[in-house]
Amino acid sequence: MKSLFDATPDGERIAELRRLLVQYEYEYYVLNRPTISDREFDGLMHELEALEAAHPELITPDSPTQRVGSEFIGVAESRAGEKVPHREPMLSLSNTYNKGEAEAFISRMREAVGGSVPLVAELKYDGASISVTYEKGLLSRALTRGDGKVGEDITAAIRAIPSVPLRLRSDTPLPDIVEVRGEVLLPRDAFRALNRKREEEGLPLFANPRNAVAGTIKTKENIARVVADRKPTCIFYYLLSPDKSWLPPMHHDRLERIKEMGLRTSEHYRICKTPEELFAYIDEWDERRHALDVATDGIVVKADDYRVHDEIGWTAKSPKWAMAYKFDAEEAVTRLLGVTFQTARTGVITPVAELDPVLLSGTTVSRASLHNAGIIEELGLRYGDWVTVEKGGEIIPKITSVKVDMRDDKTGEPVRMPEVCPSCGHPTHRLEGMAATICTNEWDCPAQVEGKIEHFASRGAMNINLGPQTVHLLAENLRVHDPSRLYRLTEEELLTLPGFKEAKARNLLTSLEESKKTPFNKVLFALGIKLVGARVADKLAREFGSIDALFSASPETLTALDEIGPMIAESIRLYASEPRNLEIVSELKGVGLNLSFGEGENGLPVRESSLLEGETVVISGVFSSISRDELKELLTRHGAKTGSGITGKTTLFVTGENVGPSKLQKAEELGIRRLSEEEFFRTYPELRGS
User: Which H or E run contains 168?
Assistant: First the structure.
């Protein structure tokens, strides 16, 4: 019998695109061996999205398009934070820091079984522990470890992680229920990028990747988008199923089965038959761990045979057949030689400690971030102090303490944030209630000016062929101090710059001309309004449609929008109240940049009526006559604002099937009007079929 997908050429193409995209995701995120470029992958994904939009009856929960912004994510979001018991407890492991205790652990197991016990040694990843359940091969629920007996539902967050398949791969039949346990991890590069962005915005930094990823998967609002932006990954190490006959008896075979099902697992495990082999593995990875893309803090040692697990058993808190050998937190003591202060494009001034070079975690460290005045004050840091340095999450060198008892005649004055900007000499300002120190000389500070133009020209913004060195030349020699000046550059001016020939000058001018086609949402992001990142800019552009409408919006109107809090609203107000900013925006309009959307352009719904004007609507659950995305667009076309979380600003809650009890309870507590799908269309009959 033919399936729906075989019935039409589009159906066949949808099935083929899904197969290809799932395979490419597996190659990229699990095998780490991509076979196509990001651009080719995106092209296939866009083709699938378009075909599914034309054939919504063919959308399935395991389609690669359904990780973010789908009705399946909506159902998962509605369950976020619910407390759910684990099928089997997620126990913690007993820890040791020395080989003597590890040898005693092995001896106890040998005595218990009356013979040798083959071991499996694995890297102990430093992330957030999770359990993921698949029913009939399809991802159904994900939980945090919680207290070991009960976890929190984080299904929406885990669905958004590309290294976690929505459907398991298998050449043979799977049991009805398969559970895998592992760690959610934030790769080193993603952690650096996240903290760099937060530092630029004057937000508190995450101490380490573990804290960052724990906060990420417990996000309550816009879960899938936050997870997709931060780019965590998952590594799995434990396989369970009520069908015990399906489970291999040896742990190393279960690890291989996890991999065969399309899940990422550690490729570095080793079977160790003697304590000597185990200690060689520990010593090897105490050195090699620093080269990994994710943080580790030790080695997990387990009996390989699950029959030994059953024979040896568990204590109330941990298994007797496994232990964690923890690496020492690597730190070093060195002298603080000085502090360099750097000004970002946002005006935030960051102190960087200059250290007497010292070997730490396999690399020579000579600099460490001090982040802000609050950290300096907390440390009581003085120039010339002896300090303890370690790598936060083995990534960012940081000063953790001052050796006060080692102060000597080389110890100098307390370290303080500068009273003038290191880039322009303008007086600095400490933001009230925050640790950030800023330079307010926004358009004449070289560091801010050049940083803003670099941001404006960046790939995610206007995508202009303009690097940092050229930006510096333009600012220094041609007084290009704001983005609008870029569009008044002439070939004659550019030819006066060092290293510029006719071809280079014409390439830049062509790139500038091409950038005028950039859509409004990206132009808004390019303006560099503080706290308005790419996602927020996209939301604001689609909500208001033009820069004029955005700048005219009241703080109350802005904060009624999902994701837009008081700080973002105030930042927009301050930007729009500055005459220089308005002058630049006016000039950018004049040279032809898109500072508005046309009706229906770039996905902006055409306003059809004001029937729902003033309503802030949250929708939740599965709908029978309309998809969630279609309902959101319908609401917007008739004047409503939509949000994903129930708040005091919500005026209407429209529900389908399978709505999470937490949202229902919150809506009831706040007295928010609730309508079922049928009641909604009965109340607004003119919208049915609209």
Answer: none
Instruction: Extract the tokens encoding 574.
Output: 């301050």
Residues marked as catalytic? 124
Work out whether the CA dihedral 574, 578, 582, 588 comes out positive or negative.
negative
Strand pairing category for 138-144 and 322-326: unpaired
For 96, 283, 308, 312, 685, the CA distances from 111, given in Å and listed in that order, are 20, 26, 12, 10, 76
Q: Is 294 helix (H, G, I), strand (E, B) or coil?
A: coil
Average pLDDT over residues 271-279: 93
Q: Which amino acid is at 327?
A: F
The 3-state DSSP class for residue 162 equals: coil
In total, the chain counts a number of residues equal to: 690
Cα–Cα separations (whole angstroms), residue 619 to 54, 628, 646, 651: 23, 8, 9, 11
Average pLDDT over residues 91-116: 90
Helices (H), 173-324: 188-200, 209-217, 223-230, 251-260, 275-288, 306-312
The amino acid present at 314, given as its one-letter code, is W
| The pLDDT value given to residue 689 | 66
Confidence bin at 534 (pLDDT 50/70/90): confident
pTM for the whole structure: 0.58
pLDDT in tens, 585-629: 999 999 999 998 865 454 455 567 778 888 888 888 878 888 776
What are the pLDDT digits (tens) for 639-681?
A: 888 776 777 778 999 998 877 677 788 888 888 999 999 899 9
Tokens of 29: 């995120």
Provide the pLDDT confidence category of residue 151 given band limits of 50, 70 and 90: very high
The answer to which of 89-93, 270-274, 358-362, 557-561 has the lowest mean pLDDT is: 358-362
Integer angstrom CA distances of residue 69 from 49, 81, 222, 310: 12, 19, 9, 44
DSSP 91: P
* 330, amino acid identity: E
7: which DSSP letter? Answer: S
Residue 623: CB atoms within 10 A of its CB come to: 20
Residues 79, 155: Cα–Cα separation, whole Å = 8
Tokens 């400490």 correspond to 430
- Between CA 431 and CA 348 the distance in angstroms is 10
Radius of gyration of the chain (CA): 28
Q: How far apart are CA 177 and CA 546, in angstroms?
A: 50
Amino acid at site 21: L
Instruction: Give strand ranges (E) for 403-536.
Output: 428-430, 437-439
Phi, psi of 541 (to 5 degrees): -60, -45
